[in-house]
Design goal:
The complex is a heterodimer of chains A (478) and B (341). Chain A is globular. In chain A, α3 crosses α13 and α6 crosses α7. With 478 residues, chain A is an alpha+beta fold. In chain A, the strands form six sheets. A five-stranded mixed β-sheet of chain A has the order 3-22-21-18-17. Chain A is built from 15 helices and 22 strands. The longest helix of chain B has 32 residues. In chain B, 72% of the residues lie in helices and 0% in strands. Chain B is mainly alpha-helical. Chain B folds into two domains: 154 residues, no CATH class; 162 residues, no CATH class. Classes of the chains: A alpha+beta (478), B mainly alpha (341).
Chain lengths: 478, 341
Amino acid sequence: MLRHYKPNGGFDEMLDKSGATRAHYQKFRGLLEEISPDDFSQRRRSVDLSFLRQGITFNVYGDKKGAEKIFPFDLIPRIIPAGEWAFLERGLTQRITALNLFLHDIYHDQKILKDGVIPPYYVLSGKHFRREFVNFKVPQDIYIHVCGTDLIRGGDGEWMVLEDNGRCPSGVSYLLENRRAMKRSFPRMFESIGIQPVEHYPQELLKMLRHIAPGGVADPAIVLLTPGAHNSAYFEHTYLARQMGIDIVEGRDLMVKDDCVFMRTTKGPRQVHVIYRRIDDDFLDPTVFRRDSVLGVPGIIRAFRQGNVSLANSIGTGIADDKVMYYFVPRIIKYYLGQDPIIPNVPTYLASEESDRKYILENLEQLVVKAANESGGYGMLMGPKATREEVAKFRGLIAADPRNYIAQPMIMLSQHPTEVAGEFEGRHIDLRPYIIYGDKITIVPSGLTRVALRKGSLVVNSSQGGGSKDTWVLYGDE
Amino acid sequence: MLSRVANSLYWMSRYIERAENTARLVETSLQLLLDMRNLDEEHVAKQWLPIVQAAGDEEAFSKLHPKATGAAVTEFLVFQPDNPNSIVQCVNEARENARMVRDQITIELWEELNRLYLFVNSPEARQVWKQSPSDFFSEIKSASMHLTGIAYATLLQNEGWWFTQAGRFLERADKTSRILDVRHQTLPPRGLPGPINQTGVLEWSAILRACSAWDAYKSLNGADVHPVPVTKFLVLNEDFPRSIRFCTTQLNTALRRISGVPDGRFVNDAERHAGRLLAELQFSTVEDIFERGLHDYMDDLQIKFNRIGGALFDAYFFLSFAAQGETDFVQQEEQQQQYAK
């Protein structure tokens, strides 16, 4: 079926430069040839229908009718050989280890600032740096318990880290559901190819949550705190809670008494020990952060400070997501671990450094500019694709608030065969693996491969027309 | 169990039951009209308005529709988005509540409810409705019964289950009382009614059909249809699953399973009101009902059902609904990190 597939140039995941199928895609291609196009589109329809029936959807804001959409899913899997995965695993482990040491340091002795490795101004001015938490000891010294790190591959197939998501990364339910859908659609492939399983993710997550429970609690009550049913990731919240067998709660279900957190049940209050929170810091406690928050729990931060409840992820991890801090991650790795980064960063320019700013402003049309604390493809300028007005607007924004902007060269992301209206064409992809940091670091062998469904587009976000694929990590290299 | 979760389970099953009962009510009325083709407009209105009253939404109806024509009433009760109790809105509400407790219900239950939701909101639903209202209502009724069956067959019969039972039987009892009351204008306000004519027989048979009671009624009373045995059957019968007494028994049981308090005692007003109502139904005769007048008696029952619902809310749910601006709520929920971060 992929016989007519022609890459558009750039690095293709399935075909090498000569047009031959890479070793780790050969078995899959062979098996795919045995499926007729009709049969294939039949399976496609049944997968879409099953997603819709199960309500595996995301909410589109401001769209009243038909507010739920299924997240487009492409049936051609992205395949990673074992050796390459081992490399990624090493790189991601190194990165999360360093980031946790960094967070511990800046919330305690701030050695990295005193040693002049990072100019203190950048950390202390960070929007998500929580000075209230300096000198506060978090359970087991873990700050980022769940991290979703976005990886991309450039023109020669070299891996790079695009960004770290150390607050409440989402999307893992799609990874798990995509796998289930593929197993149902192509059971034979799973029998003969040898693909590493992902189904233990919820158990690993639960194990981590138990690990961080306050000391002395033998059988901790663990809950998932959601903003509620109107949140776009609500499906994921219920999904994970169900898989872990824990209660899913909203802020209004919780209350704080004597610095302990309780949930309101039909039988009266019941104490809660660990909260996997999917609410941002800002909304967590109206007595500490945003006063107008109705999603949070008044007093929960005090309970956290007293060690009566544990939170995952911890407070103040957002500083590590700051795109300016990203620039410093290679230095952070070197400083704490004495190693060079295993997976490099994308070359980055800081608008607040004078020479960099000059370069950025002179080359805006060639660069991608990002706001330090925006996400989801918002607050971003794609220089080569932007109109003159957009470029001018960002020129103004950068001049007015240089601390808030970085720039990177435009990376031609690797591409992958993807079904488009019954044909197969190359579309750009990225990869978000999920890293769990508990008593050890666990990375489920897979990740969410997001694909930009619009031709030539480099934006993979679902809000901007992105879809996803199942990601297979093989037991071997072919 | 979280109070909010209990509340959602309760409303999920209540709304499913409401959608089903509304379907019954409208379908039966449509069929009744087929038997009375020769009516003028005024008489048509006379037939339809009580249906709206039975659904308990007269005020909302008159705001939206100047005249009680068949088309207006059916649109209002079946599709109207501005009527929170239209069939489509009931299904939407049931599904929204289910979504909030997605982790507490089974995949089978969720998928079936979601299927019904996708159906009633699709253009196909209108199409089916246009071609054959009766097919449409069959779809709603069988989906609801299917959901009830799935719930029986797959849900843990724990505390949450008893909240779904309470919601289901409270709604059903209330709706049976409203359906039974549809033709009260044809009866004397007090005292036992006399013999009825052919139209009357059709009307009271329609009431039985609306409650799926036709077969069960016939097996006990033969084919003689008269307001007195019909009322006796739908209010006081001990064994018929849609009779008011049966539903109240189930409701009372559910409340006691939730709290663990035995019959004859109470720890909250929901139990007190339900227990008292059950005793009343157990020790009443159909003559007692007609002595008060059917309409007044039904009115009174509905007030009691409302009181039980209110007391249930106060006893178990109230705490998690401390006054919060709903708009702020939705806005902030949405503002939280999105999938595509």
